[in-house]
Amino acid sequence: MKILFGTVATAVCLFLPNLTMAATQYEAESATRSGGANINTNHAGYTGTGFVDGYFNSTTAQTAFTVSASSAGSATLTTRYSAGNGTSTNTGLYVNGTKVKNITCNATSNWDTWATETETVSLNAGNNTIAYKAETSSGSSINLDNIVVQGAATTYSLTVLAATVGGVVVGTITAPATSPTVVNQGAATTITASPSAGYAFVNWTVTSGAASIASATSASTTVTLNSGNATIQANFTPITVTYSLSMTNDGHGTTSPSGTVTVNSGAATPIAATPASGYQFLNWTVPAGTAATFASATSASTTVTLTGNATVRANFTATTTAGVSAVTYAQTSSPVTVTTANTVVLALPFTAPSAGYITVVATGLYGTNNAYSDEQRGLESFITLNSTSGGSLSGFAEKTALNGSAQYVSETAGFPVPAGANTVRLIVSPRTTLTTTTYSFAKCKMTVVFSPQKM
Questions:
Q1: 142 near 55, Cβ under 8 Å?
Q2: Of 332, 335, 421, which is closest to residue 385 (Cα–Cα)?
Q3: CA 297: distance to chain centroid?
Q4: pLDDT tens string 359-418
Q5: Cα(34)–Cα(32) distance, rounded to whole angstroms?
Q6: Bridge-partner residues for 301, per DSSP?
Q7: Considering Cα of 14, then 18, then 21, then 22, what sign does the dihedral take?
Q8: Strand partners, 271
Q9: Is 190 left (phi over 0), alpha (psi -120 to 50) or beta?
């Protein structure tokens, strides 16, 4: 099985290592205050020596904490607050002068009750400023007690890609939802690949960095990063549909291949027929199934294309005329609509093994309102040999059929044909005096019988 690897775009990822500091609590009363932010002790339950208020109906109150980190990275920030007047959303969180968001502080039952709100922030190595600013004037404000900063676990960048072939992506990654992603060291992250139509998942490979994949051959599995950033690629392979091709013959030659072989769907498979002594190749037919198409049904060496399991037979005929039996060629069509122009209802190709004679029988039941109407009798039908119009081999005679339609039958007593490829056509044309513009033929059938001598 061939694994398809493709050229993929390189994703540039920022590696965020861990903060080495432990969890540290910073009291609000020790922070820098401005814009009306004040220290107060008039509500119970605070930590340290007090808390900071002044955010009520304010747009200027600010409390700024100085936080030290030994290295750059992400950290967990927990804010302890009270919100006795209801949920507060008017306090902005700023890190090093850049606004992160307005934090949502859910309501507390009263001002003596305290709650926490947690965010993940990115800190620089060294000192950082974490500030809480009153953004809009609101009665639903907070009192600020303290913050706790906890260093995050070591994180790495994980990039998950689907292989491409000729610049075309042949699958999709459904997990993780985004790529690249930041994952924790040692954490198992789910990865899932979905192949495009006509492809199947093969495996996962690590194209850069180091990673441990739980099951490299499972489309949905987990990957763990322990030592650094990594890129993971999902690989796919085309799905090949195969069918059984059974080769047979009429007993007067051999075929190549022989027996039953497996072929790819839609592929042109070479086939060849070799006649036995005293015989020559006639044609290829499909005695079982209809899922085979020949490049040339009358060529001994040709190709066949399968859209399903099929049996193919090579037919042969004697190379001399003496004692040769008649060879019959037959064809049946589905319903055909005949218009005012000449319409070929049936075209029956055949290969005459030698110069000889043919007898032709052509029938067609067509639907009209009255089996004996002038409309029906106004349809002219005739046969041509190696021509698409005119050249009638013989006239047609109308015969009554039991199902209320008219049946035309034409037979030749032995019309001469040359050796090799020929085509007999049944052509139907309404006369110009008819009023009906279309006629639907059904159960059309043509039979051509070849014989070296007149029959």
A1: yes
A2: 421
A3: 35
A4: 777 766 544 433 445 455 556 667 788 887 765 554 444 444 333 344 444 555 567 888
A5: 7
A6: 272
A7: positive
A8: 302
A9: beta
